[in-house]
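Intended use. Records like the one below are meant for learning the mapping from a protein sequence to its folded structure. Do not use them to infer anything beyond what is encoded.
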Amino acid sequence: MSEWDIKKLHILRTLREQGTVTATAEVLMMTPSAVSQQLSNLAKQLGVTLLEAHGRRVRLTDAAHLVLRHAEVVFAQLERADAELAGYLQGEAGEVRIGAFSTAVPALVVPAVQQLRRSHPALEVRVREAEAAEAYELLSAGAVDLALSLAAHAPSARDPKFALLPLLTDPLDVALPAGHPLAAEPGLRLADLAHEPWIFGGSGPWSEITTAACEAAGFVPEQAHSAAGWTAILSMVEAGMGVALVPRMAAADRRAGVVMRILSADQPRRHVVAAVRRGAEEGPAVARVLAALREVAGARVAG
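Structure written out for the chain above:
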């Protein structure tokens, strides 16, 4: 029977995700030569060729993909074993590390942590702000236990490494200067703002969300100003420099000189999901954190 080495299989899986030996070494805090040696040893143990030259890089062989398909089942089972052991050893105690995008931290994570401090004071939650791409890298590498992101930027639901759990549908409202002619317009639609100057990020998820929402409403937004943070965006809206789409979860950043209008027929929405390594959702500590996040999300929807 072939010898299956979990540590070496993890290196192989990371190489599949990162694409190069150098990037794999950086993620795993190893040297490139150590990565290559470990994978060479794994190939000898399994008796198959795992890597082949592809220009100046390497790529996984069909045998390597076959090995990883079976290894994913093993990794998921080990996550379940870790979760069960943690529950047995820790009971109500433990630690859960969360990676979450910026608006989710005050809107979802902080209220959930406050709730857990009252109900499970021995459970420690550590929070790390991270946008979607980084959050999933951290989750895959084991640096966080739970990642919050937008569904549009989450891995495929078919990805065997992760379990995706829907949390919240977050409507996007439009921010207008208080004196704007359309600030009190009844039945305001996103399409009514086609000729307005817009404020949104120059790149990244929020730029894509704004552009996609406006294009769905029938126009391409004219980007007058670019900013990534809600404080900067709403300051510019307040100063009459343009309009912006704002997620309802960012309500804490709203300003007195800004009117938030709920769009009628063409209101865009974004979907917030939680992700864990597959199998880890059964761990009691992670399950408690997920339950608290769901309760906070449900209260926001009901409110």
